[in-house]
Amino acid sequence: MPSYTVDELAARAGVTVRTVRFYGTRGLLPPPVIGARRVGHYGPGHLSRLALIEELQRRGMTLAAIERYVEQLPPDLSAQDLAIHRALVASWAPESAEVITRRELERRAGRPLTAQDVDRLAAMGVLDRGDGDTTGDGRTDDARTDSGRTGDADTFRLDGSLLRLGVELLDVPIEHETILASRTVLLEHARAAAQELSRLFQEQVWNPYRESGEDPDHLTAMRSLSAHMQPMVVQALVTAFQRSLSEELRAAFRSR
Q1: What is the Cα–Cα distance from 143 to 156, expressed in whole angstroms?
Q2: Which CATH architecture has domain 6-77?
Q3: pLDDT confidence of 224, banded at 50, 70, 90?
């Protein structure tokens, strides 16, 4: 099995040594094996984790979100298993969020935005606010990984697909705390559904396909298979949620 020093690992992953060590302190990378002369040795699993983190970054995930994602992974995943996760992320994740200025945000929103408006949009998941922090490298281009921070207090990381709906909801009389509570409920149940679907996909689709030996390029096959399933699963989730919510609302009003 290949073994790398921290310098070799950083070079192969295309990051700095400080980034590798920073991820280690945050628990995103397991500690190296300490060999002779107290030299740390990393393996393919570390390289695969760095590649997965990079993919999650490209998809606009904050450092806090990446940490939560990595925490859900079994600690004994092989480099191949981590590569599978990366292929799934690449084919299922939405487009990366974009970083824009306050002026551009207001132009696209079509209205001036107060501090309360920005707080409400952040609570709805439409944007993340910048606060000038970085990942610990001192590199501003890495700042996008740290809890929604863009490295500038007057810039925002925006999910453009949600902006129009978010702006429309600004004038709806819903308390900020209610928005936060609603989002928490949705995220918790969405994560549970995603975990179960991931397990089902791996056990009933991916493992049988890999064992069949039909295609030696397993990762390309995984990306293609999951990409074809994505629209069907997303639509099924949306439809099921809409029907369930309608039934719950009808039941709630009938009981009054």
Answers
A1: 12
A2: Orthogonal Bundle (1.10)
A3: low
Bridge partners for 128 per DSSP = 157
- Distance between CA 36 and CA 21 in Å, rounded? 20
pTM attached to this predicted model: 0.49
145: confidence class by pLDDT, cuts 50, 70, 90: very low
Q: Helix (H, G, I), strand (E, B), or coil: what is residue 32?
A: coil
User: What does the domain layout of the chain look like in residue ranges?
Assistant: 6-77, 98-172, 177-254
Q: pLDDT class for 139, splitting at 50, 70, 90? A: very low
C-alpha torsion angle, residues 123, 19, 32, 58 (rounded to 10): 50
What is the 8-class DSSP label of residue 140? G
First to last CA, the chain: 66
